[in-house]
Structure prediction request, 452 residues.
Amino acid sequence: MSNFSSSRRRFLITAGASAASSILLKGCLGNPPDSITGRTTAQTVAPAKIDPAQAPETTKVKLGYIPIVEAAPLIIAKEKGFFDKYGMTDVDVSKQANWGSMRDNTEIGSAGGGVDGGQYQMPMPHLITEGIITKGNKPVPMFLLAQLITHGNGIALANKHKGKGIGTKLDQSKALFTQLKGANTPFTAAHTFPQVNQDFWLRYWLAASGIDPDTDIKLLTVPAAQTVANMKTGTMDAFSTGDPWPYRIVKDQIGFLATLTAEMWRNHPEEYLAIRADWVDKNPKATKAVLKGIMDAQQWLDNFDNRQEAAQILAGRNYFNLPAEVLMSPFQGKYNMGDGRVIDDKKLATYYWKDEKGSVSYPYKSHDLWFITESVRWGFMPKEMLGKAKEIIDKVNREDIWKEAAKEMGVAADDIPSSTSRGVEEFFDGIKFDPEKPEEYLKSLKIKRVQI
Ligand code: CA
Prediction:
């Protein structure tokens, strides 16, 4: 448990710094033109007649989000009337200052002025459920209900590293990391919250090329805005977050993109919808109504004809407050990486409902297991957690509710996965994760903090 309490302390330290620095955000990145950030007036769908057997127990729920492309299904479901369609007419989609606030507001719950659930990096719902990242390590049971998105994340590098061969693979630039470490000015990389997706993407990227993220570089938790400022002044080398931030780094000529997460792990699990278990247990029909609204929004978002409108809605002052054009990059899979590399590949765009491998929205238990295995890899969770993983995943992952909601709303049978496992996953460095054998995956990794 000592691991857990020390990580809890780190979380507390980073959470305090972030509120003040978020004020810097707009100043650093430039204010968007007024014409495209005004309150949007989206065409909404007409509310359908709700089957009385499916009528929600409440019309209200408060869902937190972070202004990155992962939040799109929440905002689109609200703005396009998809929540209304299923009787959820009072959904409060609430912007959170940072991930620490999201965690704290989840713990408080809507009754205490917080949230009932919303958007989470992984494995936040499991960490909150187990009380690993909550105050006083109090368990706050949560249910994972859907995946929100795949792709849409990247690793941005400061301009000073342009032309040094830093890409998805670092074979050509390994000497740079050694040299910086030797000069006592180690390569400094940041993520926005420790021990979740962004931290994992940075660690995987470095370790795949033989760079140890714990000893060869400096890895920090820094709020996005502060990271951008630090990259501008040259004190930060890299950072990992969701779009539009990596893209804005290029657009504002602060840096370039070394890699997209879509290049590191095609169709990878990213962020999820989760809601407190007490809310779900009290409101089972409303939970399914929320899920149906999200699924409708995800299908709407995956129609590329809707993506310009989606960008306009998300870019609005009441949501992301930035130029809509910056969102079209992840939406179309068109990335000017800023270092001479231009990507124009629709397959690398963000997907919300379906990708090449099947369902995006369905929360595969095998993906929860990868996040827990990766947590064990880096010593964020003790090795014994691997043995307990199934039990924790079965408790938190409610793919059964996803399936019920999908069936009730008439989702095609082909779009409802028959297995809770997506099977073997493969990463850019050829490493494979077989969810049947997580120990084998850990064995195959050279850099890790666990003895297997
Ligand atoms: Ca993300």
About this structure: The CA atoms of residues 189 and 238 lie 4 Å apart.
